[in-house]
Amino acid sequence: MADVVPKPHTPAQGVAAQTQDDLTPMALALHAASEAAARGEVPVGAVVTDAAGAILAIAGNRTEADCDASAHAELLALRAAAAARGSPRLENCDLWVTLEPCPMCATAAALFRVRRVLFGAYDPKGGGVEHGPRIFAATLNLQRPEVVGGLREREAAALLRDFFGKRR
Amino acid sequence: MADVVPKPHTPAQGVAAQTQDDLTPMALALHAASEAAARGEVPVGAVVTDAAGAILAIAGNRTEADCDASAHAELLALRAAAAARGSPRLENCDLWVTLEPCPMCATAAALFRVRRVLFGAYDPKGGGVEHGPRIFAATLNLQRPEVVGGLREREAAALLRDFFGKRR
């Protein structure tokens, strides 16, 4: 349960003005997760911000919609942010995601050279940052981002619990 | 150095008829790696075949061309193969790649549920199958593909050595 003061940020284009709190990166990631659930996708959302806190990309899971098992929110957001910047690297950018990234997405965050990975719920079964292969500790030649876990953890976990509860 | 009898296969569409040996999946992956090098990309190539050995997708690295640090040959080939099949899963398919997959691509292979991962050169620094986080051994809830390493290893390694040699 991290106690992090959010960095200053700029609202995403096209996001309806709501309260200031609804426009923090993690709030936007939670919103993208809810939208994914509404589409029948596992509710995980991700946001990439630049060094000044401006939103570069927002994405939710799209594995079913895109016929792509790798279409995790994080990978989609990282790819979109890099396209927006016109560079395959995202130095000084932060990845905000509602769930601890899996090993694929954790490695991708390092390959894109993001500065920080900030996530919501911990994932003991599928996570690859604090669980399983612990990518940033295990991999020799990757630049390791700073990690913050537990941001709005209860909301992020509740979205996943509701989603999988309904499926049983 | 594995001793594997290649499965029967169907030549990829658009590939000029050459000798039978030039159309094995690993030969096609090596060719895609050479083409990547010619574009200034790290020379790694990948092919996905279905259960009958037919080619579903061929890709080379495109991280620079696509402004996408995740555009590794394996991820591109897996995604293209899934799109071709119209399913986010690639059960009974095989991933052939000239270099030991990194942790991102190894995890992606498991997420796509490929049957086998067959690679060329070993990668002690960046690999995630036999080195580093050893994804298939470390991750609890992923389906583990069968792994074959060392197929046409010398050719695959020579491509990488030549590429990085020229850059120095």
Main attributes?
homodimer, alpha/beta, five-stranded mixed β-sheet, 5 helices, 5 strands, 33% helix
Overview of this protein structure:
The structure is a homodimer of 168-residue chains. With 168 residues, chain A is an alpha/beta fold. Chain A has helices at 25-38, 73-85, 103-111, 135-138, 153-167; strands spanning 45-49, 55-60, 94-99, 116-121, 146-148. The first copy, chain A, has a 5-stranded mixed β-sheet with strand order 2-1-3-4-5. In chain A, β3 (94-99), α3 (103-111) and β4 form a beta-alpha-beta unit. In chain A, α1 (25-38) runs parallel beside α5 (153-167). The model of chain A is unreliable at 1-17 (pLDDT under 50).
Largest sheet of chain A: 5 strands, mixed
* Element-by-element helix/strand order of chain A: HEEHEHEHEH
Point out poorly predicted stretches of chain A. 1-17
Alpha carbon gap, first and last residue of chain A: 29 Å
Mean pLDDT over the residues of chain A: 88
Largest interface: A-B, 40 and 40 residues
Rg of chain A, Cα atoms, Å: 15 Å
How many H/I helices of chain A?
5
Q: Count of DSSP E strands of chain A?
A: 5
Relative strand content of chain A: 15-25%
Kindly report the spatial arrangement of strands forming the biggest sheet of chain A. Answer: 2-1-3-4-5
Determine the oligomeric state from the structure. homodimer
Structural class by secondary-structure content of chain A: alpha/beta
Q: How helix-rich are the residues of chain A, as a percent range?
A: 25-40%
